[in-house]
Structure formats: C-alpha cells, structure tokens
Amino acid sequence: MHELKSNEEFSEEICRRHFNQIYKYCKNLLKGQPDDLAEECTQNTFLQAHTQASKLKVHPNIVGWLYITSRNQVNAAYRKQYRKRKYEVILSGELSNKLVSDNRELDNILISILNIDSLVEIVLSKLNNFETKLYTEYFKNQLSISELAEKYNLSQTAITTRIYRLKRKIRAIAYYTLSA
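Above: the chain's sequence. Below: its structure in token form.
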C-alpha cells in the first residue's frame, strides 16, 4: 500500500498520523527538560523518517521504527547536553559576586602569581618571524583578516588557518611554560 505513494506523500502521512504520539513519547523521556527539546527530537525523528522514506515504506513496523529513532534522538540530546555541561563551572553566589565585583582582587592575585610579561616574552621567543608579525598585526594592531590577506597576498582562508594554528601554538607554549 505504501509502495504506491511518493516519498513526500508517505512522509507527510506518517508525520500527520504519528507526530503527536512521538512528541508525547519524547516529552515523557525528557521529563524536566524544556519542551522545545522534545519538539526538536520529534522533528529530527520525522526528518530522519523523511530521508529514509524509501526504506521505511517497506519496513514491517513503521511505528516501532519511529519510537526507536525518537529514543535515539533523545539519547543524542542528552549526550549533547552532557558534553555542553561538562565544561560549565558552577560558582557559589558569594564567589561569583566576588569575581564580578569592581575591586580587582582576583586580577591582582593572578598577576602576582603569574608573571604575564615574562610569559609573553617566552611565547614570542618561540615563534618564527612570520608568526611574530602575524601575532603583532592581528592581536596587537587588530588588523582584520581581509587586511592581512591583502598585505601578505594570501587568501582569507589561508590567513584564518594560520591564525588558528598560531593560537594553537601559543596555547601549547603557554601551557608547557606554566606547567613546567
């Protein structure tokens, strides 16, 4: 029966028939999460169904496929949230207020611990001539990527790549220097 319909018609029909129940299923799996996350998982499920429509037409259990796919979408959403939250730092109210206060105590403590000038000197001494020029022009003189591309007769993509590599190299040098 489904084989006679176009993929577009088939996708629209299963979406019309099953959207609400799949949405409720996703919402149930995502209890305590924002409703838009359940909606996103549901939409992704039906988007995947649309892309797999030709195979799904002959699938023996379309509804089961939708439930499994939606559960996979929910699991992917949880993984994404976990990765996002993994790097968040939760600060107590007192500490966060102290960090944003105007008294600059934290800055003074960090400056006293780290000798920023010597760190910058060490980092710059490890860069080659082109990297030093690029650092100076991009970070200190704040030339745009298009200005640098024109100056060095390179594409903007090449300049962007070199700046990315330079940032990565600076980060590695600083990390090595601070951990030594």
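The chain has ten helices and no strands.
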